[in-house]
Amino acid sequence: MFVLVEMVDTVRIPPWQFERKLNDSIAEELNKKLANKSSSTGVPCLRQCPSAFKMGIPALWRGRCESQERLPGELGLGVTWRVHGHTQVVYNVGLCICLFDITKLEDAYVFPGDGASHTKVHFRYVVFHPFLDEILIGKIKGCSPEGVHVSLGFFDDILIPPESLQQPAKFDEAEQVWVWEYETEEGAHDLYMDIGEEVRFRVVDESFVDTSPTGPSSAEATSSSEELPKKAAPYTLMGSISEPGLGLLSWWTSS
Amino acid sequence: MTGNLWKDANAALLSNYEVFQLLTDLKEQRKESGKNKHSSGQQNLNTITYETLKYISKTPCRHQSPEIVREFLTAMKSHKLTKAEKLQLLNHRPVTAVEIQLMVEESEERLTEEQIEALLHTVTSILPPGPEAEQQQSASDDVAMDEEDPA
After folding, report:
1. Residue A141: its chain B contacts at CB < 8 A?
2. Chain A residues lying within 8 Å of B48, measured CB to CB
3. Which of A25, A205, A20 is nearest to A119 (CA)?
4. pTM score of the predicted model
5. What is the pLDDT of residues A118-131, one digit of tens each?
6. ipTM of the complex
7. Which of B10, B48, B99 sits opposite A59 (nearest CB)?
């Protein structure tokens, strides 16, 4: 579920930190910028290949920052390359965990009007980004008509939609819980998907949403239409439990 | 960091064990350095590393080591699985045929029942059980002991 992503970024170090070791300052700045974040705006990265994601193996290749390119939203992987200034692009990699290492430090420059140093850094970051069809285990956070919400603790935005549950399934409005109406010869057993239960699921889709602030003009346009959609998470996973062995762990352990 | 990375320029997949090692080392380093840990800029790093470590520590990678991982990968060579499939077996340590079928694509076509059994045997004999499996094991051991006591 974790991958190593190679990235390049320019790190700004203010003068009052000059006494510290350069590598320490840089590591701290990179973690400050990226740790626990899903959309890295302004950090150019080597790209992940969308068709490789489909094959189950994330593939990295070096993209050309000079070109402008838009990929179709295959499986929600909306990758947009934009050229702005030098090499700033918007790219979504997954949930950034922590810095793995610094592979190259280029020269540090001080620009007129700004006393801080700017260093171009090549580094590798540990990123949570499960591949398509990967099996994961999480805890049920809650149920809603949208489906079952699952969390891994460090990552919360996993949804198993109703059509991907073990069938037949029904939503119990009173208890706000999804139920698998498991059929046996003796009749139907109701298996409840309670909060806190551990569940094994398969990753079937992911989506990245650009959560950067929009300008005033687009805000006017949306306020006149129906109610504003609620704030989307930048990175969400869709899961499925509609196969033997998937669903609550307790459903499948032999007593 | 030891050479446990899947050395392929195209697939920089990390096993849970490697991330567990990394986060544990990072925690030690930050404990030693003392200051700066609580500065507002580091809060995100603190949160994500704490929560991720908490999650991974409950999985079978908890008791793995570089030697165990190496032994596992060597044993896996004869089973002809893809990188992603081996990674899942390493991370999950499946103990039933149903789990193997979930993690190995088109397993009905690629593996016979005997091969699935052999795979299970390799996985469970080389990889140590995770902390949760141990709890279940000790719980069922207690039950077994009670049953053995004469009335």
Report:
1. none
2. 35-36, 95-98, 154
3. A25
4. 0.78
5. 998 888 889 899 99
6. 0.82
7. B10
| List of residues 6+ apart from A12 with CB closer than 8 A | A29, A116, A117, A118
Quick check: A2 and B47 CB within 8 A? no
Question: Are B54 and A153 within 8 A, CB to CB?
Answer: yes
Partner-chain contact B98 A97, CB within 8 Å:
no
- In this structure, are residues B27 and B53 in contact, taking their beta carbons and an 8 Å threshold? yes
Sign of CA dihedral B114, B115, B120, B123: positive
Q: Do A131 and B84 touch (CB under 8 A)?
A: yes
| Nearest CA among A5, A2, A1 for reference residue A101 | A5
Q: Residue A180 corresponds to which amino acid?
A: W
Residue-wise pLDDT tens digits, A25-64: 999 999 988 888 876 444 444 444 333 333 333 333 333 3
Of A45, A63, A56, A61, the residue nearest A7 (C-alpha): A45
Evaluate whether B33 touches B27 at the Cβ level (below 8 Å): no
